[in-house]
Amino acid sequence: MGMDSRAQLVSMAKHSFVHAKAGTIDQEPEVLKVPARHYYEESRWRAEMDRVFKRMPLMLATSAELKNPGDYKSLEAVGVPVLISRGQDGDVRAFVNMCRHRGAVIQPAGRGNTKRFICPYHAWNYDGDGALVAVFKEKEFGHVDKSCNGLIRLPVAERAGLIWVHLDPHAALDIDTFLCGYDKVLAHFDFQDWHFFADRRIDGPNWKIAYDGYMDLYHLPILHKNTFGPNMPSQALYTAWGPHQRVSSPDPRFAALEDMPESEWTDEMLMQGVWTIFPHISIASFDGGGRGVMISQLFPGDTPQSSFTVQNYLMEKRPDDATAEAAKAQFALLEYVVKEEDYATGLRQQRALMTGAMSHILFGRNEGGGHRFHGWVDRLIQTDDDQLERLFAQSERYGV
Ligand code: FES
Ligand SMILES: [Fe+2]
Prior knowledge:
By secondary structure, the protein is an alpha+beta fold. The protein is built from eleven helices and 20 strands. The chain has two domains: about 5-55 and about 190-390, Alpha-Beta Complex (Naphthalene 1,2-dioxygenase Alpha Subunit, Chain A, domain 1); about 60-160, Rieske [2Fe-2S] iron-sulphur domain (Rieske Iron-sulfur Protein, 3-layer Sandwich), CATH 2.102.10.10.
């Protein structure tokens, strides 16, 4: 029998404190080598797009962006135009954002609220359920069976105030199987009640160079010494639910909890650190202007050496004028850190690796997040469709 999600959080806090007291971390058995070409080779990158991004559900939106019936979000992910909407029944649906007439993209990228999606090309109309409801000059056009010309549905699931979408309409992997129970732990954020504050886009290097950095605490006191300061912890603890990993540091603050009954330990305290969602999300907590998180969504670009990241800032409470200023300052700092420190470094690293002068890069015994992440990407590339479900069902997960 597995532990429930609250018990998992408490057990992680205790584990963290034991390490903090002893001055130790969990270590992988060996230093890992990853071929340098995995960061720039076209065939490798293509396999990652086809076998990872097109077969795994991706967290493409937060419930906070789509609170009301009729709310929608349009975006392009890995070349696929996606439309996500909340129906009048309250359920979230996802579609390929493409008109059944001749394939025009219907709703421009962005968010809004509407009862009808109207194609800008010849004004065919679709309702919030994606059903085709009106054909312009239908008599002149000729007969179209409306019942089978609705927008093409994409598999979707809303869990823990986050929305996952498969980019392939025929993707078979069940979203709950993929989540490995991780959503139950993420649910302790209560994101469905949070406020969407702001977002922006930052260009970066190969998606894995960028993503490696989100699982890496080893660099914090070095690369970010001028922004976060030299006292950031470099030690990391990794906890896995299938391919999804929580990254935290051995935290001496948990010592203060020792004298307090466990039932009084708050979710806010227990949810500190970075929560990654495979293959391309990071959720990190901050407190400028009140409790907030930055949810980073990394999207591969059009080439192996490019990606872009959407930074979303969510706040537990809708800010007033004063707290909004502080939140803005917090979010601005995070733009600077990621753009000028992480990705500026990553873009130079990309160019250096592409010389081919080095056959492999290294992940230390202290960098378990990278070990597990690259292991999963490799395994997914090697796993055929009919074995995918089993791979996730049998994978390691916390407390089981
Ligand atoms: S392509 Fe949409 S109405 Fe013609
Ligand atoms: Fe960083």
